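fwd from M.: "can u put these together and see what the complex looks like"

so here's what she sent:
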Amino acid sequence: MKKVNVLDQEFMQGFIHMANDGWEQRWHERNGGNLTYRMKEEEVEACKAAFTYDQPWTDLGITAANLAGAYFVATGSGKYFQNILSKPEESLCIARLNEKGDAFQVVWGLTAGGRPTSEFPSHVMNHSVKTAIDPSYRVIYHAHPANVIALTFVLPLTDRDFTLALWESMTECPVVFPAGVGVVPWMVPGGSDVARATSALMKKYDVAIWAHHGLFCAGPDFDSTFGLMHTVEKAAEIRVKVLSCGMGIRQTITAEDFRAVAEAFQLTLNEEMLK
Ligand code: 13P
Ligand code: ZN
C-alpha cells in the first residue's frame, strides 16, 4: 500500500497555518483555545492508510446523529497552539465519531499521548447544528482574544448589546456578520451544558461569545473562519479603545446607516438588532 503523509495533505496544511496565525495574534496563551475541521469524504479516503483503529471509544456526553461516522481534525487537550507548527503530530489528532454520533475514537496523531480538546463536545454540537443548516460549514474555532473578553465585563450580556457594539465599531462588520453575534453567560467550560448553550446560538449566528472566557466562530473554510474571528476581535479592540477614552460616544453609525449598507451590499441584516 502507498504510504500516506497526512501532514502533506492540503487540509492539514490549512489547519496548521490557521492555528499558527491564531498563535501569532496572541489569542492562545498556554493551551487556550481549540480548533476543529470536519473532513471531506475524499480527504478521509486519501488518508485512511495512515489511520489506526485500535484506540478506545470515549463518550462525548452529547449526540450528533447527523455526524455519525464523520472524521475531524482537532487540537489536543492541553496542547499549545504555539507548538502546532513545529510539532503537529504531537499537538493534533484526527478522531472519528461512532455510528450513533455520541462517542469518538482517535485514529491519528497525539503521538506523545493525550485526547482531543476538552471542548470537543461544543465543537461537535456546533458542527452538527451548522452542517444541518449548511453542509458547506466545516470549521469551528475557539480562541481567547483579549478585547472580546474585556467587553464581557462592561457590556450587558445580550446578543443585541454585543452585536450593536461590534457593528458600530467598524463599518464593514455588518457585512462580515450580518446575523450578529450571540452571547453565552458565564458557564463551566468543557462540558455538555455549555455545548448545548453554544450550539443553540449557532442556529442563528456564526459567532458565540462566552462571557469572561472567549468566543467560538463557525465557517465553511479556514480563511473565512479565521477572518471572522479577526474581524470580531478588531471591532472589540476599537470598542475598548473608544470606551477607554472616557469621553462617551459623540457620534456613531445609526440604524439607518446600517440599512443603507445592507442595501448597497445586498445583505439581509438581522433587524432584531436595530429595534
Ligand atoms: P483544551 O486545551 O482542552 O483545548 O482547552 C482549552 C480551552 O480553551 C478550554 O476552553
Ligand atoms: Zn477556552
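replying to her w this: The chain has a mean pLDDT of 97.
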